[in-house]
Amino acid sequence: MASQPSSQDKQAEHGTALAARLSASAGTVLAHDTSLVNIIGSQVNENRCWQGRYTKEDVYPVRELPPANPSFTGRQQELDKIRSVFWALTPDGMQAGSSGSIKTITLFGLAGAGKSEVALRYAHDHDDKYDVIIWIKAKSEADLETGASRAWDRIISRYTATWSGGPLPELYQRIALSVHLFDAQVSDFNDLKREATSGQHSIERLKAWLPGNRPWLLILDDYNEPEACKIDSLLPSTGMGHVLITSRNPSVSTTDVQIEIPPSLGESEGVELLKRTAGRLVYCCCGKLDCQHAETLVSSFGCFPLAISLIGSELREQKGSVTFRNYPNLPSSTAEPLSSKLGTIFQRLFKRLSRRARELIQLYTTAVHGAVAELHSLSLVSQDPNSGSLSIHSLVHKYAGTTVKHQEKKQLSQWAVEMVTATFDFGHNRSADQWTYERSILPHVNRCFAILLSDLTPGEGPLDVQTRKLAYRLAQTYSQLGQMKGATTLYELALRDLELRSTSDSAVIDVMNSYGICLRLEAKYEDAAKWHARAKEFIENAPPSWELSIGGSKRLKMLETELNLAAISLDQGRHGDAKKELERILEQQQEELGESDVATVKTQWQLAQVLYLMGNLGNALERFRFVYESRKNRYGDHHPTTLEAAHSISTVLEEMGEYLKALALLREVLEKQTSCLGTTHYSTLKTKNTIASLYECQGLYDEALRMSRQVMKELEDVLGTAANHPWLLRVRCGVADVELRLGKYEDARKNYTAAYEGFTTRGMMGDAWPTQINITRVLRDIGQYDAAFIRCEEALEELQKNPDIDRRFVSVAKFCKATILELQGRYEEALQLYAERFREEEEQPKPDLVEILKMRCFFGSTTTKQSRYQDALQIYNDIEEEVQKLDKSGRSIVELLAMRGKADVYLQLGRYDDALKLYQTVCSIKETSQLKDPEYYYTVYGKGRAYIEMRKFDEGLGFLQDAINGWKLIFDTADHPYIFMAMEHMGLGLLRRGEALDNRKAHSLCKQALEGCEKMLRDGHPQTCQARASLGAVLAEQNRLNEASNVYAASLRERRAEFGDYHPSTLEVRRLLADILWRRHRYWKVWWMSVTGPGGRGKALAASSIGLLLAIMTMVLAYSKFKRLSWPRHMASAMELLSRVFRN
């Protein structure tokens, strides 16, 4: 029999599993960071050895858990239920709890029933079964972050206590890898702790780390409101662990197992709890009668655990000889409501409190959640052993509030709000930690908001100076935290019924300017401008004696207000006005304050924003970098304003095509913003949206769409009903951009249209016209070329009129117009516009090579459609040489365009093997990236044509059918020029295959294709002409020569009008018509000879000589033209026909 593995073997196996996970993570997460991959590769084996050296006694368990309650009693039935679910026995007698699955239980019941105590008792009773036990409050997102950060303190302590040997920096780096900090550079304990406990990331990393431990127990306490706390962000989906949730609301949980904690204990359990909480001294003084009185006491309060604990605590604190009979005032009836019974207990306890203790708990009830030893000794508050913070039970909290006298309430309320707001800092020296702190106490800030509205604000009329200051400070806090609704309400309150001429409070300038900024962020531009104008009026009318109180200089305060007005112009798209005003303000600030002053740097940042939006990328980047360095030197690299500047740098890098640099910078920004500002702050959401845009630029469309839709949803939650807020409209455009890339045309069209209407409603035409260009792209791609052209012309004309608009939008509009002209068959106009864009890009200070080469690819495709195949081939050969100068991301885009274009040329030149090889390469690349867009199916269509030309009809027809099916699925319609094009070639393929039923199918397909082209395209469109000629070929093959002749004649008229007499495509139709003439000559000759006999041969030839002569001349002319153009496929067709003529 094989021996059982030792504990050391098990730990070695665990180390090997961790090494495998690290290797897998390195392959996916760090695909672009080879240096870190090498570090992981070199250190995984050492981690194996270290972990293999553990024995069970060596392992330092992780315990983030409150201490056991020595007074706990009862609840054995509920504890047994938990144990039976988590540690059920398998048929062979083994405990199933150690197998690889996650089990979750929800404990629910009334407040005060003891749910948390049951969960805590279970954890301590089964402490030896778990390697990891983590207790986290789950009332809010802030609670989750705090709990996860504390858990990481314990986890890091586990590793540092267990691992030893080697230099400390290497030790901490190994620990970082083991706790999934793959991209962290740590050299000491503080680095490790900071990286692991950074805000929202602490939750994500804990979720990733837990499954690697077995077994583990996660307790989520007080989870009552799913909207306030999304526990899915913490719950692992794999691994071997148990989750225990406590909640007052059974409907919040979707777990399979729910256990109700009854509000009452059993009588004997209640008596035991009373004895334990009362303490040994009380219990020892009790005789038999006292014990009977204890039973009566417990029963009279319904065996409710909280009531029993409070009674026991009161008895314990009494002086002298105490027995259970000392407790008077039992409830008059067992039917008396529980709240009334608890009120009786609370009343007795509050009478015992000293004046200071009573005021403190009343103040706590108002806003500040803390208390002192006296309250703690009576179980009115409890203390967290880890953080030292004090908390109050919700039922105690509720009763304490009822004891506050009306005349005391306002004073207590004011004290509470003053105590909270006194901890805020809004000056130039505001640190990054201040944002983190304010976010962590947001529940207290919300409570202060409620107090201010209910207790400190009169029903009407202006506020007093002190209350206005409190409202202003709370409003500033909400603004900094991105909570615009609350900020707006408080600013309006602070400025209510304010008469500028009657107030002597100079701080009102800051209130008005701050309110204006808040309104601007809410996109209420006119209202914002009004408040800034009022601030200017206040400054202008301020007496000289107010110089110091308003910032030391009326002029500088005026410049600050004017800067706010310039920011409104910027947000409204009036870039020229904003630029002129900002340059004036900057010059004055530099003169009076210097380059490095906070206000000067802020103006530099605003001016850089204008320059970026006007397309002056080089100047903008230089200024953004100056702002970043200035803010970094002053505040550090974690400060939100520093991160704002870093984000701005990344947006310029994106426009310059440096996607990898921009993405690396933004990921760093996002991590720091998440830690400081949280996941739903508008600055964090803006960064996520820019990352989504970069994903799109790199072709990671699924990731881009997922992230941009998430940002849109979260931004909708932040902005509420402001559906046409510019931020939301721009994010909507970003979502539509990706949907367009993925071929989700209807979704893209809806989002673009909603954004366009929103911008138009706001009068923001600088955003509306570029959005119209995007609508044009959708119309173009779904085959509505005429409608697309009209909208594109309109948008381009308006964009060219606006001197403030970013010239890049004009360039995009021109390029879009050129592609539409190409698709409309207006090739010369398209080429002229492509050439114009090409020259414009080359004249830029730093030309974008990617854009230049993309335009050359489109130039090549248009040249191909003009039948200038050798010219097109040379263009693509030149592109192949230039593309080597590009980085990986830019190269892949151009290479795909060039390969497909070159394959199209090879197909026309009869080099079918070469064409097929390129088509297959493009298909493989797109299949690898799982991108089956319209261009993918165009390549499939090309493969189908190549196979048909190689006479592999079944394969070719199969690919053509695949292309048709794919396009129908993407376009959600059968009416698209691409589909008609494929149907036409499918018909020609069936015709050439020549099976019995193929001619009929070919006729049907070619007729549908022609009807579709006539419906969606103009009569003279090249595709319509081609579809008409193809139908003629089918008719000719069916010997319906008169019908074929008429169709060819109509096609010839169209081509002569469109391209002239000697264009190759015109000659090709002439060749087909010549074939009809020749065949009619032969049939006429046969008929005449059958009538006149052999002697009539000369007459027959004479009668048909004119048609024969025309056929020969046309074929000779076509052959010579095709030969000069090096068109082997067309030359062969013409020569074959000539041979048939002369042979007969």
UniProtKB/TrEMBL annotation:
The keyword Transmembrane helix applies. SUPFAM superfamilies: P-loop containing nucleoside triphosphate hydrolases, TPR-like. The keyword Transmembrane helix applies. Pfam families: TPR_10 (PF13374), TPR_12 (PF13424), TPR_7 (PF13176), TPR_8 (PF13181). The chain crosses the membrane at residues 1100-1119. Keywords: Membrane, Repeat, TPR repeat, Transmembrane, Transmembrane helix. This is TPR-like protein.
